[in-house]
Amino acid sequence: MSLHRALVLGSGFWSVLRAFKSLSVSSPATVVLPCVPDVNLLDIQDAAFMDTLMMEILPTDRERFRQYFSKRALGLGLMAAGPGFGKTTALSVATLGMAETLGPIFASAATHVAVDNFAVRIDTVASSVVNRYNKDKKEKDHVRRKLVVRGYDEEEMVDKNVIEGLFRRILEAADIVCTTPAQSCSKFYRDWKNTKARGFAIDEAANMTRPDLHFLWGNTMMPCILAGDVRQLPPAVMALDEKDSQGNAINRLGRDAKISPLEFFQGLGMPVYRLQTQLRMAKGLFDLSKRFVYPDVDCTYGPGCSIELDAHRIGRDLESFVLDKHPQLNAAPTDSLQPIFIHCEGSHCHVEPMTKSKSNRDQVVVALDFILDFISSTAGRVEPSQIAIITPYTANMHVIEEVRKGMKYATLASMKPAKTVHSFQGQESDIVVAIMATTKESGPGMTTDEHQLNVMLSRHRSGLIIVGDIYVTGRLGGERNNGRR
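The structure assignment produced for this chain is given below.
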């Protein structure tokens, strides 16, 4: 507990280690502890299973992955990378390694969507590893995959008399339990966490508050791995800039509350495992984020990012459609795809008088018409469900859904509901249409927030379309070249 307190205080371990060293044991020798203890989170005795597990990691990263997680100071691991670099998959591999080494693991994330994604990814990776390991083996030599349980809300999702007894038996057999921090405090999961869990794995840790982590982790320095990206959404803080009638800040500790546990531990100088290969986006589509958000990150595109793959055919279709409709545009560089900006000149931004949330019906109509024309041009190759719409403002999200109800857009019925940046974090889509809603007259608003902008412009796999006013901050560098993207 003293080591954990020293870690959370961020004041170093000298006083704790000095106290440990002065303690006596049964033998005449004193305890010598020149440094904090290391924990092997990948202490798997079955070498064949270990090799099978490592096949889920990129070949270029396997040795580095094993070295990092085989010797973790205090059992604390940190994993950081930008969007599309495979953080959740790599964290799932580390979680399964911990489960093999330590025993039951409690997994969590900042939101329900993130917990859902994490639970599904752990189960997918576990199934892949076990199927590969058991192949060509006799049944008696088979291993079973880990039982991953995604927690539900007690007394809300189902009648407790129907499922509680069954669920308790399932929970008793679980290897990995996944809940939000709030759910972990309910009796169902608190008892399992306190009596069975031998380690913790946290996804989207840059979006979680430090109190939420402490609710989960406790204060006994149990092994824990946190993964996330401090350049995406920080923890949500209420009343951050609000003041009372006398001008005093309502939330005086708000700035401190925006520091996530991942950012805090990185700031202490704890070693970080960094992912360096873009795995999700087609080649060229991460360049915008790299240029403005990750200029210091040395990264490459993985083999799955080639635009010639069937997975990115929709991106090639989008490129062809845009060039056919607007031949004055410059084509994307060879073997790459690029984001597309649709400039809506003269659009009107409405600002809600009470909430100050912005909406722009003109931009919404332009975006939906573009999507409709694109889908119609593909002769059934592209489904509306492959396209997602994101916007920074709740008011604009409601306008999008209202306009979509018109008969003109009936063919878009299977398209996913529009989401705000916060509600879409952790999700992805083949093509993302980002409707900014702002204009030069309204000002850039929330789109000046680098964290929100980063999330909004990094949820796609094969295509990104930005709809807005290109002059929202005024004209920069003279007149715009109409042929540029």
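Interim note for the steering committee: Residues 112-134 form the longest helix (23 residues). The two ends are 56 Å apart (CA to CA).
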